[in-house]
């Protein structure tokens, strides 16, 4: 299809998602438990990637470069890489698909989507709407599989020579395995892997704003997002006030319950293994001297529900500050100097997102540039948007998604030397 035809069909797919937003949101809540209001927000966010890349499809520009020889012209073309294998996680079962697939289809690629074994229905629902939008058969393909078959299916997608590109969102450990598989055929690879986001609150910060940002960043999707805060670093002069206000906000504003209950802000974790990791991190921290300010145990609603938890007196030697928890646990570390905070924040081998609150303009510039992450929130706890490039540094991944840069991951640059002129 021409770029204009691809644009029109992606736009129609976007419109159908918006028309069916309530049904799609209910599928997400039924699959992974997130509160219905959050699921509705995900669907609109998810659809926006189809809208964005419908527009970007017509802006894949080549180039003409002045040649050193008079009888030559240098042309640069951008062409689709080919078949793209898309492997997505359960925490955003719709948005993680459209962010990749929107770019791939806009570029002219076909895709094979392997959704998370916990959340295949969202991918299949998107496929039904793709059909209704006129996306040709064989362009958007979904391969659901069981947990037992996932490693084998992933290996096939990464090793088959017909697949030209791998895009994966998930853990760093799994990403490394897929990279090894993809190396055999030297595939194009983009990956959004694990995070360990620091959230720094400096003495100059507006505490109320910082608490609001902390609440949004930490407890969205019950702490099960790649960019949610994993370590809170709070400067000595403001530490006690922040902890006190943060605890009150958690107790007042967060409500654990079924995702289909309108009052719920915190749904269940994805499975019991996730709950056990939160418990392990809390037990380890408490055994080393941390204090539970609020929460700290499973909720009475059921085995996969956990109380939003806040820990103080936390050190960098505790598991919760060394590993990504992926749950509703907020550990707070007290620090004294800016240099100390930067050193703690950058000690991780991953760098996806980072956040800090300050009202000192010079400090804002220094810290934003020094944090070793792909995305920085300055006085802001939520940074994701369709217009901005999403991705990390170090072991948090390769490449960027969304924004004007996202489509480049699915394009090859071809140089044409036109001679004899």
How do you describe this structure in short?
The chain has 421 residues and is of the alpha/beta class. 38% of the residues lie in helices and 20% in strands.
Question: Any descriptors?
Answer:
421 residues; alpha/beta; Aldehyde Dehydrogenase, Chain A, domain 1; Aldehyde Dehydrogenase, Chain A, domain 2; 2 domains; 7-stranded mixed beta sheet; 6-stranded mixed beta sheet; 12 helices; 20% strand
Explain this structure.
By secondary structure, the protein is an alpha/beta fold. The protein folds into 2 domains: 215 residues, 3-Layer(aba) Sandwich (Aldehyde Dehydrogenase, Chain A, domain 1); 182 residues, 3-Layer(aba) Sandwich (Aldehyde Dehydrogenase, Chain A, domain 2), CATH 3.40.309. The chain has 12 helices and 18 strands. Helix 2 packs across helix 3. The model has no long low-confidence stretch (mean pLDDT 97). It catalyses: succinate semialdehyde + NAD(+) + H2O = succinate + NADH + 2 H(+).
Oligomerization status of the protein chains: single chain
- CATH homologous superfamily annotation of the largest domain: Aldehyde Dehydrogenase, Chain A, domain 1
Query: What can be said about the biggest beta sheet?
Result: 7 strands, mixed
Could you tell me the CATH topology label of the largest domain: Aldehyde Dehydrogenase, Chain A, domain 1
Q: Whole-number average pLDDT?
A: 97
What percent strand? 15-25%
The CATH architecture of the largest domain would be: 3-Layer(aba) Sandwich
The gyration radius over C-alpha positions equals 23 Å
SSE class: alpha/beta
Pfam family, one: Aldedh
Function: Catalyzes one step in the degradation of the inhibitory neurotransmitter gamma-aminobutyric acid (GABA).
Domain Aldehyde dehydrogenase: 2-416
GO cellular component, one term: mitochondrion
């Amino acid at each position: 299809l021409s770029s204009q035809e691809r644009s029109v069909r992606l736009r129609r797919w976007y419109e159908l998602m918006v028309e069916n937003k309530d049904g799609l949101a209910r599928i997400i809540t039924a699959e992974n438990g997130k509160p219905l209001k959050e699921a509705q927000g995900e669907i609109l966010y998810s659809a926006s990637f189809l809208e964005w890349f419908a527009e970007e499809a017509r802006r894949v520009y080549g180039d003409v470069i002045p040649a050193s020889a008079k009888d030559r012209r240098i042309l640069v073309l951008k062409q689709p890489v080919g078949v793209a294998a898309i492997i997505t996680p359960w925490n955003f079962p719709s948005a993680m698909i459209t962010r990749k697939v929107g770019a791939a289809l806009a570029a002219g690629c076909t895709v094979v989507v392997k959704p998370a074994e916990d959340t295949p229905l969202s991918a299949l629902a998107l496929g039904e709407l793709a059909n209704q939008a006129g996306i040709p058969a064989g362009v958007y393909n979904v391969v659901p599989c069981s947990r037992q078959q996932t490693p084998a299916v992933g290996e096939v997608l990464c090793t088959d020579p017909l697949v030209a590109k791998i895009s994966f969102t998930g853990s760093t450990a799994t990403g490394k395995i897929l990279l090894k598989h993809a190396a055999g055929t030297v595939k194009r690879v983009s990956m959004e892997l694990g995070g360990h986001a620091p959230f720094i609150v400096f003495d100059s910060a507006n505490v109320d704003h910082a608490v609001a940002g902390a609440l949004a960043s930490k407890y969205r999707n019950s702490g099960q997002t790649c960019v949610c805060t994993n370590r809170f670093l709070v400067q000595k002069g403001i530490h006690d006030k922040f902890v006190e206000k943060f605890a009150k906000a958690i107790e007042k504003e967060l409500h654990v319950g079924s995702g289909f209950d309108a009052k719920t802000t915190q749904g269940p974790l994805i499975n019991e293994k996730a709950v056990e990791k939160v418990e392990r991190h809390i037990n380890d921290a408490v055994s080393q001297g941390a204090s539970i300010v609020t929460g700290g145990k499973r909720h009475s609603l059921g085995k996969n529900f956990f109380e939003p938890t806040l820990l103080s007196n936390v050190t960098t030697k505790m598991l919760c500050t060394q590993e990504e928890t992926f749950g509703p646990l907020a550990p707070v570390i007290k620090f004294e100097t800016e240099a100390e905070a930067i050193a703690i924040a950058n000690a991780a081998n991953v760098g996806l997102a980072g956040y800090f609150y300050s009202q000192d303009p010079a400090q804002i510039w220094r810290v934003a540039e020094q944090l070793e992450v792909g995305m920085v929130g300055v006085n802001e706890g939520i940074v994701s948007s369709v217009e901005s490039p999403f991705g990390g540094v170090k072991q948090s991944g390769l490449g960027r998604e969304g924004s004007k840069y996202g489509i480049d991951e699915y394009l090859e640059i071809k140089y044409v030397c036109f001679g004899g002129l």
